Amino acid sequence: MSHITFLEASVVGLIQGVSELFPVSSLGHNVLIPALVGGSWASDLNVAKSESPYLAFIVGLHVATAIALLIYFWRDWVRIIGGFLSSIRDRRIETVDQKLAWMILLATIPVGLVGVGFEHTFRVLFGKPIRAAIFLIINGLILYAGERFRTRRSLAADAEAEAAERSGQRPAPRPRAAGATVAGAAVSPATGGGGATLSGPGPAAAPRPGGMHASGQRGVRQQEAVRAVQADRRIVAVGNVQGVIIGSAQILALLAGISRDGVAMVTGMFRGLSRQDAARFSFLLSTPVIFAAGFLKVGDLFGPLGNGIRGQVLVASILSGVGAYVSVRFLIRYFQTRTLTPFAIYCVVFGLGSAIYLSVK
After folding, report:
1. Which of 61, 244, 294, 311 is 20 to 30 Å from 283 by CA-CA measure?
2. Structure pTM?
């Protein structure tokens, strides 16, 4: 049986965590990179090889990736799950959280059914390095088309999201009491920016160290929460049918080289979402799909396929989770002002270079 070294596991884990959320296909990279390195990497890390632990290994890492997404979006998932439970309890779907919960559920069903029924077939047919390179080129063309042929609705949604972003970043009015003098008494800020205390005449007392920092952090979190609710309101406005279409696009990610988040983002923009809302929706859609895929395969790692590599799985999972968390933090901010075009260029160049190299070596 193939063995996976700690070096191989570390590289694969980091690649999985980063490329799963970047629109460049984690599966495509995990198929191509071992083939490009060659030697024991090509034999140990062969996703299409019969009885290879590699597929269970990389898909099992999805659990770590999904956990990272849950940690980053935990406040959103608390709202969404609460909305789902309240909709069942009240037997109605009215609030934004309730609508978004059912939208995600319905949008996840198509890719879930196809994944369970045809994952093995897709792996055998398309898990070859040269085919992964070709699909990576196609992925790049999809990303480029998504930016080049943006609809008017999507561009208008960009303007709306930017306006909401600017309004959410306006500084709150400074409380009149802070540092002011009332009836000859100085008012000093209390710790954490809350309340005020009266002191005798003279300069105001200095705030305790860390107080304003904590207050600022709370303000940032409150602004992020407001922006998230505003984004969810825009997402649910497109309706469940469009949501299912966006979610169904993830089926293409069963082809090594096609990015789940990339095709979901492009489809979301074509269906009228702004770029940053499409990115947010794609990450929310990815979480249950990635977690389910990992959960179904992680059991294999506790069976014969996992013998001798469980330590490697632990190391790779830690790196995958850290890489995914850092990636989603970066991408959420990136897509507020920037485009998919750099990723499109990367996919075409890397895919084309890989295809040429694999054809002539």
Report:
1. 311
2. 0.82
